[in-house]
Design a protein that fits this description.
homodimer; alpha+beta; Beta-Lactamase; Arc Repressor Mutant, subunit A; 5 strands; about 50% helix; elongated; DNA-binding
DNA sequence: TGAGCAATGCCCAATCTGGGGCATATCGTT
DNA sequence: AACGATATGCCCCAGATTGGGCATTGCTCA
């Protein structure tokens, strides 16, 4: 199996086009005993090239179903993947997130489209949309349970290859990271401090603190400090651990 | 090799204490041909139990060197790991980030401590500190280049095991119960809406929206809406997926 | 059937925030 | 030497937020 993984990693590194990578993924998925694969960013797709990475061989109609409901960020499998750093079987979902009725509906509908049980490997890079790479059996077919380690590897390397290809396709605006001072201010903002309090804590003027916070907002395009805190937490610029420490 | 990985994953899942996991990591690192391992969150450590995950067997003195310079978030290897979703050899660093003189100094100093070349596997979970799991050869020794796939697997599963152990260690937080309306308002607050906008969206008066938001703040003891959003996200009253959907 | 709570509404006043603009000093890099 | 990025400072001002208080309606549960 290791040789197969190695071969996939080598091929994936060579690939220069999305279709090529899709082809490779389809082949390896089949060999591992899966009918389907799906490598995607967890964003709502509505046609733009800049939407994000997406490669899959799900049954006809599923993508339309998925997009019509804008499931990218809210699909239960995607949501569960936001809470872990390694792959998991979909049968674990109830232990990972609270499944709402809408979630259950999505899972049932997937079954109706012919999608059975599956494995999903999360792929998160700070500052980018969250993503994942899934492998699924056909409805009714058994999931090759012993393949989690292999799938974990294939999924991770496939996602990285996809990132590389998408970066080549549109190398554009690299989002300027927050400056050190902006992060410091941001931490205190997320801790509920006012501009003035932040200035006293950091030993700078009220106006300068305001400025750093304003620039952090602009970096994220956040209209106010609440959304700023949410966005910065989501992409890892600051973490709950730091913010709520002590 | 796959059996070795499987055995590690099984053992790691059983582990209930950090030291146990460290022991397992040390063993597998040695078997793979590495002298050192380091599994850590990328935060500045200053002694608190809540600082984050950190397990390593680096040479005596290195941790003090590292902490004195607060390298957690700025260490060049850590920084490089923030730009990828799969493991990489440290020899790739110059192609991944711009190495400043300070970075070069850190790498040179690591060599003086006896740390040679290594592999690092990133581990990111939205809303948590970034982290990674590294394996390094002794200074002068060759890096087992063919082990990247194995290291990728061990690193990922080890990090997840560490997250599980640290979560168990954290004291459980009791949830202030929010009313349904409070949660609805809160969602829009976290999305960056003003009181007035929330009132229009929910079809209630400006004053009533203010009231719900105020009461939600009081439930959490949050001094303002930014901290309210952070607290509510942290304990799961609202989730990134709901907030950032669409 | 009365207490408690969720949800709704309104008013006031002090403070905070967000959007402008202007300006200087210090770094690197080019 | 010029440029860009970062960090620092100050001013103005409209609108948003927060912290008080007061009051009604409908529901549930003991």
């Amino acid at each position: 199996m290791f040789e197969r993984v190695d071969a996939f990693v080598r091929d994936a590194r060579q690939a220069t086009m999305a279709d090529e990578l899709g082809q490779l993924l389809g082949e390896v998925a089949g060999e591992l005993g899966f009918s389907y694969f799906a490598l995607t960013h967890h964003v709502a797709f509505d046609g733009g090239v800049r939407d994000g990475v997406r490669l899959h061989n799900y049954p006809c109609g599923w993508q339309e179903y998925f997009d019509a409901r804008k499931l990218g960020p809210s699909d239960p499998v995607h949501r569960a993947s936001h809470g872990t750093s390694v792959g998991f079987a979909w049968s674990e979902l109830p232990r990972m997130i609270r499944l709402t009725e809408a979630d259950q509906q999505v899972l049932d509908d997937a079954g109706r489209f012919g999608i059975g049980n599956g494995f999903t490997v999360p792929a998160h890079v700070p500052g980018e949309s969250n993503g994942s790479c899934s492998f699924a059996a056909a409805q009714g077919a058994a999931l090759p349970e012993e393949q989690l380690a292999t799938v974990q590897l294939i999924g991770a390397f496939a996602f990285e290859a996809a990132r590389r290809i998408w970066r080549m396709r549109q190398p554009p605006v690299e989002q300027p990271a927050l400056t050190g001072r902006q992060v410091e201010c941001l931490l205190w903002v997320a801790r509920g401090k006012s501009d003035w309090e932040v200035s006293q804590i950091l030993g700078i003027s009220h106006e300068t603190a305001k400025r750093h916070i304003k620039q952090a907002r602009e970096r994220y395009g956040s209209s106010n400090r609440s959304l700023l805190a949410v966005n910065a937490l989501f992409d890892g610029a600051i973490s709950f651990r730091e913010v709520l420490r002590r």
